[in-house]
Amino acid sequence: MIYLDNAATTAAAPEVVEAMLPYFTENYGNPSTIYSLGSEAKKAVNEARRSVAGLIGARQEEIYFTAGGSEADNWAIKACAEAYADKGKHIITTKIEHHAVLHTCQYLEKKGFELTYLDVDADGLVDPEALRQAIRPDTILISVMFANNEIGVIEPIEQIGAIAKEHGILFHTDAVQAFGQIPINVDEMHIDMLSASAHKLNGPKGIGMLYIRTGVKIKSFIHGGAQERSRRAGTENVPGIVGFGAAADRAARIMEEKIQKETELRDYLIGRIEKEIPYSRLNGHRTKRLPGNVNFSFEFIEGESMLIMLDMKGICASSGSACTSGSLDPSHVLLAIGLKHETAHGSLRMTLSEQNTKEEMDTVAEELKKIVQKLRDMSPLYEDFVRKQQA
Ligand SMILES: *Cc1c(COP(=O)(O)O)cnc(C)c1O
Q1: 323 is catalytic
Q2: Is the CB of 69 under 6 A from ligand 1?
Q3: What is the mean pLDDT of residues 57-80?
Q4: Which CATH superfamily is domain 255-390 in?
């Protein structure tokens, strides 16, 4: 099998699983109890908190564990809207956010908030000047993702953060795709809230976090006990948190090497596809992109058909419409960068890890070339196109 869907999820690293295991069995204590079994668990949770904080230059007490990236996004946006509603009801975000952000914003619109969804350019980049123009006296929150999960584009977060700070507006970023993959510093980038999720960096599923800068007043999201400084109730997912910490430690240790290896593989695969498969188009900025992200549109064919044929060759990838599978709508991200519906439907996302090899990239390029040709040979659209070309 060749796994090229690391933006969807990753395998938990062996050292992560090993770190977690004792916390299911012998170290099962509830961190809120006072006997040593409980305080051992509490200590482990706080060590993990320190590891996670360290990856973004935050302080330990600014990290709040959640049940994943979606919860962190929901919390940041809804609780902020509620806390600052008397100051204003305007929120700025972008057209290319993950659904955890977009659908939360749509929910708030129904509750009387006003949303501005910023456009992106053909490469997927937000224009900081357009953001500045969109700011109003009643703007209470700016939420712009750090890096996009489909096309891998890395947004100008530092510039956006500076503009938010200049205007005294809170800045949240969904960094689920960036956290542990590329360097982040919440102070240098003026980030007030940041969402991350362990399963995108070789940690376990169902555990994530929201970074909340000291001094930011937002409401608690889950009401109940006093866990997470009374801001997120519920007995801690101790094994998950320990796994998240181990994944953060590992990410910090291998980041530099991982970036270098993935970037090389990425650019090699992009180069082969561009050279060898006609009527293909790279989606997303060529260099301001996540090290492991390759996203192409192939004219005249369907992404879903490509996925099925790649699967038969043991290759796991994703299409532009994977998140909306079951619906016929093409990806909102690909439409936002200006692709036609047909072109967006013919998209393929391949997201690499440091475990992939150049040989695998060769296999993928070879198989993809055959698959695209085969599908085009069956495509009436392609037949039409060829006939017109010959006429
Ligand atoms: C995966 C992902 C999420 C959701 O995270 P979960 O932990 O799966 O809830 C949110 N935003 C982005 C950009 C993602 O890639």
Answers
A1: yes
A2: yes
A3: 98
A4: Aspartate Aminotransferase, domain 1 (3.90.1150.10)
